[in-house]
Amino acid sequence: MNYDEFMSGKLDALRDDGNYRVFADLERQRGKFPRATRHDADGTTSEVTVWCSNDYLGMGQHPAVLDAMKGAIDRCGAGAGGTRNISGTNHYHVELEHELADLHGKEAALIFTSGYVSNWASLSTLASRMPNCVVLSDAGNHASMIEGIRHSRADKVVFKHNDVEDLARKLSEIDPERPKIVAFESVYSMDGDIGPIAEFCDVAEQYGAMTYLDEVHAVGLYGPRGGGIAEREGLMDRVDVIEGTLGKAFGVMGGYITASKTICDFVRSFSSGFIFTTALPPAVAAGAITSIRHLKQSDTERLAQRERVAKLRQRLDQLAIPYMANESHIVPVVVGDPVKCKWITDWLLDNAGIYVQPINYPTVPKGTERLRITPSPLHTNEDIENLVNALSELWSQCALSRAVA
Ligand SMILES: *Cc1c(COP(=O)(O)O)cnc(C)c1O
Fold first, then answer.
1. 114 within ligand 1 shell (Cβ under 6 A)
2. Directed axis angle between helix 115-129 and helix 143-152, to 10°?
3. Are 320 and 188 in contact (CB under 8 A)?
4. Does the reported pTM lie above 0.70?
5. Which of 128, 216, 386, 390 has the most CB within a 10 Å radius?
6. 119 lines ligand 1 (CB under 6 A)
7. pLDDT tens digit string along 137-184?
């Protein structure tokens, strides 16, 4: 095989479809979120306002978080020095796991190097180690869950997105003796819609299935202490495994599950993706602890974010720029064409200093290509005006459809 020719051909096909990913080369500015310096291919730099970050509350720039990280480097140095099993368990990791178990009202927690790894490792371990297990997976589930289930080689049944009846029907068709896991999310990242957690738990209970909930886009943001949608709805004790990330609203990096002592010990003991990898740097764990503690007792960031989201939606409504309605903090503006979507975001970056990454297939279905806008507490009125005015100009230029008032 001519390897180079093969790979170049595949890449060209991606480009032709408008689905080739180009990364914005950014330098975040400490304490100035959502501002960043953009490095252009020609060596020039410019200042941009970031409108698509998952650092939803700006905690990645919070002074207390930065101090905690610097303090941990001064105490412990750079890396963990090993896997969790072989010399790499730092006291900060142990504290972080206590903090997370407490956040979700669970007996225990287990941290991983990312949310992706936590889903992949936990689901693949649970589904492969329970004999003859079936995983019922929501059709909208994130790639990390899909890959974890696939890796387990367990039978997988996909149920319609957020559809309780479809889940019940599919559960009823499975041998009651088989172990079953129902895997779903609370806030879905691309549409911003929210899963019916209580109803899913009812059905799972009826059929004796375990529940596995990804709260990655909800932790830190919902619930009185930032425990997510399950906390807000008083459902944390009904879900067997709650999975989350430290890399989005908590502003740092890493992933985790919280569950009973036995489930966490089971994953800890049998999961290759937990055991055979270097533990998170102590400073990362220290930053996460501070961020979680802060958001447990402060509602200020959550309330300000909600207000900013409402403000942006109000301005989009006034300019008749259509967006997908949902109950969360995510504002998806659908363009519906990959080439136009990329063109629009390039224009925003080059002409208005606005950075929104285009979201194309396979992240979202073809024909629903979009701008995924995530307002934070730190976006000002002026930022919002710049964004909506630029969008309005583009909507006229590109003859994109307006919402009917
Ligand atoms: C981002 C994401 C993850 C992965 O979390 P990371 O910490 O970024 O690896 C898992 N699930 C969902 C739904 C996500 O959007």
1. yes
2. 30
3. no
4. yes
5. 216
6. yes
7. 999 999 999 999 999 999 999 999 999 999 999 999 999 999 999 999
